[in-house]
Amino acid sequence: MPELSNRPERPRVLSGMRPTGKLHLGNYMGALANWVKLQNDPAAQYECYFFIADWHALTTDYADPAQITQNIKDVLFDYLAAGLDPVKSVLFLQSRVPQHAELFLALGMISPLGWLERVPSYKEMQENLTTRDLTTFGFLGYPVLMAADILLYQPHFVPVGQDQQAHVELTRELARRFNQFYRLEGREVLPEPKSLLTPSPKLPGTDGRKMSKSYGNTILLSDLEPVVRQKLKTMVTDPARQRRTDPGDPDKCPVGDLHKVFSTAETMAKVCEGCRTAGIGCIECKGWAADGLLRVLGPIQERRAAITESAAIEILEEGSRRAAQRAEQTMVEVREAMKMLLSTVRSRAM
């Protein structure tokens, strides 16, 4: 395996997901599909790092971590099934790279409390996850861990959706603060990454709300055809269509939103005409939506079926080794800039 350069000519990107179970179509359309495009972009030739953020899972599930190991495997399988290629991307596990914790500690020492309390998701998650005690240091400090995750690899870009931009901006602020305190031979050690905004189509769950595990309204990447079709049969539709003969509006229907993402132009035209004239019923419309979803899920599930657990774990171990190698390059510079190297102390004493 070639050694990873410290300052690559190729632009580097980094992103990751918490292991909260099998991934769903919202995860795929919101992040995974874009990661695969970045990995395969022949023009940009990105150097890609994608990880499973298992330490982040502890910020909310610290009291019951029993499922995290299985969740890691599920997410790893979904990464590979979605098309992430370990030859083109470094796929790794956060906890297998201890430098994440070391940089988290260093950044935590210089993180103003007010910066963390103003992160939009801090109060939002406390309000939504009322069954868990989130008045912990770990939860308050998770944006610092996120910043460490990013800055450890000195990436040029972090692919995120609009709702995650605040975290990248905090990361940039922490990088600036670190560079104000610590420099290495006059230069900055932690470059400020840029957000790489990714298009995230409106993808409703079966109850019409945003597709989310916490709502129990998801369609998983691993759901087989009978399951997909059954879930869509129960999906809410335009409330104006109380009876089969009532006309509807695809722009006001969650199923219509799925069509806009997954159906062909020909199918979309039939949906618009049939719904607005009551020429088709909702069951027929949902069947067409299922056809579109299955065209996307089919290749994903074929790849998933070909993956063995031993091969997947080996990929993660090798990726984690490569990630640790790259992370250590950053930490050597961080320690030297902070005068935390024994060789620096010894040279001063002489």
Spatial strand order of the main sheet: 1-2-3
Give the count of structural domains. 2
Number of strands: 5
Main beta sheet: strand number and arrangement?
A: 3 strands, parallel
Q: Rg to the nearest angstrom? A: 23 Å
**Residue share in helices?**
40-55%
For the record, the CATH class of the largest domain is: Alpha Beta
Element pattern in H and E: EHEHHEHHHHHEHEHHHHHH
Q: Helix/strand/pairing class, anyone?
A: mainly alpha
Multimerization state: single chain
Instruction: Please give the CATH architecture of the largest domain.
Output: 3-Layer(aba) Sandwich
Description:
- The protein is mainly alpha-helical and 350 residues long.
- The protein has two domains: 12-203 and 309-349, Rossmann fold (3-Layer(aba) Sandwich), CATH 3.40.50; 223-303, Orthogonal Bundle (Tyrosyl-Transfer RNA Synthetase).
- The strands form two sheets. A three-stranded parallel beta sheet has the order 1-2-3. It has a two-stranded parallel ribbon with strand order 4-5.
- α10 packs antiparallel against α13 (282-305) and α11 packs across α13 (282-305).
- It has helices at 25-40, 54-61, 68-82, 99-108, 113-117, 120-128, 137-140, 142-151, 165-181, 225-233, 254-262, 265-276, 282-305, 309-337, 342-349, and strands at residues 12-17, 47-52, 89-93, 157-160, 194-197.
- β4, α9 (165-181) and β5 (194-197) form a beta-alpha-beta unit.
